[in-house]
Amino acid sequence: MGVLFFKPIPRLAIWGHTLVKDYFGYHDFPDGVGQAWSFSCQKGASNICETAPYQGKTLLELWQEHQELFGHPNEQFPVIISLVGPEDDLSIQVHPDVKAALKLGYQAGKNEAWYFIEAEPGAKIVYGHNAKDEADLTHYIKEEQWDKLIRHLEVHPDDFVYLPAGLLHALKKGSVVYEIQQATDVTFRFYDYHRKDANGNERELHLKEAIECLSYDQKEMENKLTTVMTSLENGEQTVFIDNDSFTVTKLELTGENHYYHDNYQLATVVRGSGTVDGVPIKVGDNFLIPQGNKIVFDGHMTIMMTTR
Q: Which residues are the active-site ones (predicted)?
């Protein structure tokens, strides 16, 4: 079985416009898209396969009916993979950990990670906060001392940032991002800069729920990762993270490479172009490499891959 290509799903956002559409060549997307879901098994929002013999099937259907492609029977599909192009700052958010997620009826918490395909000079993200405990946090909020409360992290092209559940975080404009998140599709909005919509209304916040999930662990606000790099025939492989939530790998390819992995991989081309098993691929293409599949890449390109 060769690789299987999937159609991305557009996701409208008030902070989106045309960046995702233009950067990734998704010309059929409407304006206003902030992100594209490359791989999702959410009910009502699962990617459609474009490759025979599964053409027209959703990723969710394949996960449920064709586990020979994946090798993870009796498990939930673990992640949502997105390509994100914010043209305004996102709201500041926090995700639930396992304990909080179970109370809401979910089977897992929501850890997340970002790989920065592009980042303008001086680009930053929200990454953590300065409150010592909930009482300290409440003081910052009551006094509207958001600038003193919120921490920022400068980001650059090729940076990888891990966002454990409970971490206060937000993307800001000035970047293009490959995003990995656990498939628990719930987010609590902590602060939105008092922005108003066309009717003069501010977006709903989930402050109580966000505070209940918030971590005060300063070590989680340092983004310290141990990456593993190995040489390929023509290129380099970097494993950014490998934990219980997901494994994220980058392939930097500069020619022909024979690739094999005993696990499935969700692959997205984020830079350059080339071929996979002789089929042309380019930026924005998303394909499943079934478990135990031997394939051949050729070209000059960067491919991001996620599995569990």
A: 189
Rounded to whole angstroms, the Cα distance separating 78 from 86 reads 24
* 0.85 exceeded by pTM: yes
Residue with tokens 């673990």: 78
Residues designated as active site: 189
Model confidence at 42, pLDDT cuts 50, 70, 90, reads very high
Residues 112 and 95: beta-carbon distance below 8 Å: yes
- CATH 2.60.120.10 range(s) for the chain read 2-218, 226-305
Q: How far apart are CA 267 and CA 304, in angstroms?
A: 6
Contact status, residue 180 vs residue 79, Cβ threshold 8 Å: yes
Q: Was 112 annotated as part of a binding site?
A: yes
Q: Any known ligand binding at 66?
A: no
**302, 282 contact by CB (below 8 A):** no
Q: Is 169 annotated as a binding residue?
A: yes
Q: What is the pLDDT of residues 277-288, one digit of tens each?
A: 999 999 999 999
Residue with tokens 């023509």: 234
Say how far apart CA 41 and CA 9 lie, in whole Å.
11
Architecture of domain 226-305: Sandwich (2.60)
